[in-house]
Write a structure and sequence with these properties.
The chain has 628 residues and is of the alpha+beta class. The protein contains 21 helices and 20 strands.
């Protein structure tokens, strides 16, 4: 499979997530109904239970609308078109007395049809006298006509499709626990690519059928579980030991193997991640902590996940969830389960196994998990996360490189013009647990539960289009606050506001696009003016002017146009370091009054010309260009 095809699958996987938003409400309604039955309030209980079951019953229609939204960048017209297609399909089923109800697979197909037609024809133009039928109206018209043909095809093929899905489910079940083991392994492997929803959709929403006492038909492991099918839940129960116990144990192992000086930060971040996994079943922040550092450990994790599912299936444990296999779903849906108490001791056992394996592997193979090397943790920047969004946009290649911005619970799902412009190192420094390229411009950036918040802020900033200037690191080394520069003039921001760096190489590069306005005779400093009128001062070291240019070589002249990453000055690193007070290198904007807001990257190691370190938004009245 090519990377481009993988990217398209990722887009479909993202679209399949939209309808799942309604499932927790359905599960809660069923649970409330169960509790009311126990208190004798039968009429109220029936109301809540019927509400929950209705949501599961209309899932095919929700999937049609949700998939269309996901494939059309949330275009309401596409969702409406998909619903029209489903209603046409339902009426044709009734007219021809077909012996089956619309399924989730039917909903997905109508969603794909509506989404693809909308994206292809939403901007079509006709002559002026026909333009009323152009644009989105033509997309709706074409979807409606296409739905007639698709409905006929599905009615003809429905018996064969049903047999195929039934065969798939029966073959897996016929394999016994080993079939469930295969599903469990594939489920965790596909999580790494964000494609697990494709697999889940088959087993959670397609395999198996159940008709309740009211005559309502439900298909798939998940709807059947909530409809009261005692055989359902086999594809979900085994995830509880992993999400509630095993992965929190991995977080504990990471904390215990962290450096003592970094442990407080790591403890705060990964104890929170462990609690989130235990409570809600959101596991990506923990899994991505070792996915890239030690892929073979992720394979071990996938095999153990399959083993947990095999064990629960063999023991006859049946449990389900509306969101994920966390403690909330475990408790809320316990009344529907079978032998669910066994999940607790099984989970404890798997937690101990995971803890021992991961601590041993981290020690034995010196795996660079968080806290063993100094990296930025997302929790470090949680308080001012939204102010870092401009730097995230820059690390993604800038506004013009971003085509589509979506998010699920734990990751940004993006499409960019050129994924080679994406700075993975900078995104990691911004707190991303992982960056995955899927080809065709499709990209995933794992920011944990902050992802949806980041996405909303990105959309606002991309639409608002403020005048921003981005800066990359001018040296290879470590970024520090300007206040830590051992010089009163810079530390108290008397020259201007900005940041500073401790270089570990003798090269200074341009942090921004602009023109060289001044090169000091001693070549230890220079000034750049950006096209927006910002005046940027770069000063190598403290008290380096006394060296009278010894050890420095400027490779640019006043008036030269420079680009980010272009070499400006070479200097003898060891000689200058020995003879000056400090190698702290400030980068400040001397006319800071032009700046309306500032965004700083985490103070951490940086790569010259690559790492995004600072972003500023200018006052509207302060815009001014460079005059050569």
């Amino acid at each position: 499979m090519s990377l481009n095809q993988l990217g398209l699958l990722q887009q479909l996987s993202r679209a399949l997530m939209q309808p799942l938003i309604a499932l927790p409400a359905a599960a809660l309604a069923v649970a409330i109904g169960h509790m009311l039955q126990g208190t004798g309030m039968h009429d109220a209980a029936t109301l809540f239970e019927l509400t929950g079951k209705t949501i599961f019953y209309v899932l095919p229609y929700l999937f049609a609308a949700g998939v269309a939204l996901g494939l059309s960048n949330n275009a309401g017209v596409a969702a409406m078109s998909s619903m029209l297609g489903m209603f046409i399909f339902k009426q044709l089923l009734t007219h021809w007395h077909a012996a089956f109800e619309p399924t989730i697979l039917n909903g997905i197909l109508f969603g794909v049809l509506a989404g693809m037609i909308h994206e292809r024809f939403k901007n079509v133009q006709f002559p002026e006298y026909l333009q009323f039928f152009g644009g989105p109206r033509f997309a709706v018209l074409l979807t409606t006509l296409s739905s007639i043909f698709l409905s006929w095809v599905m009615i003809v093929l429905a018996p064969f499709m049903h047999q195929g899905v039934s065969f798939l489910g029966q073959e897996i079940l016929a394999m016994g626990g080993f079939g469930i083991f295969i599903y469990g392994v594939l489920h965790r492997v596909l999580v790494a690519f964000g494609l697990h929803h494709l697999l889940n959709n088959v087993y959670w929403f397609q395999v198996g059928s159940f008709t309740d006492a009211e005559g309502m038909t439900f298909t798939g492991d998940l709807p059947r579980f909530f409809a009261g099918d005692p055989t359902a839940g086999v594809y979900m129960a085994g995830l509880y030991p992993i999400m509630m116990f095993a992965l929190p144990a991995v977080a504990l192992a990471i904390v215990h193997e962290s450096r003592e000086d970094l442990r407080p930060k790591v403890r705060k971040t990964y104890f929170t991640a462990a609690f989130v996994s235990l409570l809600t079943g959101i596991t990506e922040p923990i899994e991505f902590a070792f996915l890239f550092a030690a892929p073979y450990l992720f394979i071990v994790h996938a095999l153990l996940s399959g083993a947990a599912m095999w064990l629960t299936a063999e023991l006859g444990i049946r449990h389900g969830f509306s969101f994920s296999a966390g403690a909330i779903d475990y408790v809320v849906n316990f009344h529907q389960s079978t032998k669910a108490l066994w999940i607790i001791p099984i989970g404890v056992a798997f937690g101990l196994i995971y803890y021992v394996i991961f601590r041993f592997a981290i020690q034995k193979f010196q795996i660079p998990t968080p806290g063993r090397v100094e990296v930025s943790l997302l929790d470090d920047m949680a308080s001012d996360l939204l102010h870092r969004v401009p730097l995230i946009i820059q690390a993604l290649g800038g506004k013009d490189n971003i085509v589509d911005t979506q998010a699920c619970i734990t990751r940004l799902r993006l499409r960019v013009q050129n994924d080679k412009l994406v700075d993975r190192h900078a995104l990691r420094m911004m707190g991303a647990a992982g960056v995955i390229r899927l080809g065709g411009g499709h990209l995933q950036v794992v920011f944990g539960t902050y992802s949806e918040l980041i996405k909303e802020e990105m959309v606002k900033r991309l639409q608002r289009d403020p005048k921003q200037v981005w800066f990359v690191a001018p040296v290879q080394g470590r970024m520090i606050p300007i206040e830590e520069v051992p010089d009163t003039i810079f530390a108290k921001k008397l020259v201007g506001k900005g940041v500073a760096f401790y270089p570990d190489r003798g090269e200074l590069v341009s942090p921004v696009r602009g023109f060289i306005r001044h090169v000091y005779p001693t070549m230890h400093a220079l000034g750049i003016e950006t096209p927006e009128g910002l005046e940027v001062l770069l000063h190598i070291g403290i008290e380096t002017s006394s060296l009278n240019g010894a050890g420095f070589q400027a490779v640019v002249q006043e008036g030269d146009e420079v680009k980010p990453g272009q070499l400006l000055i070479k200097f003898d690193f060891n000689e200058v370091k020995k003879r000056c007070k400090s190698l702290a290198t400030p980068m400040v904007i001397t006319n800071s009054d032009k700046v309306a807001s500032w965004s700083m990257a985490p103070y951490a190691p940086v790569k010259k010309g690559q790492t995004s370190v600072m972003s500023v938004v200018l006052h509207e009245h302060a815009l001014g260009g460079v005059h050569r």
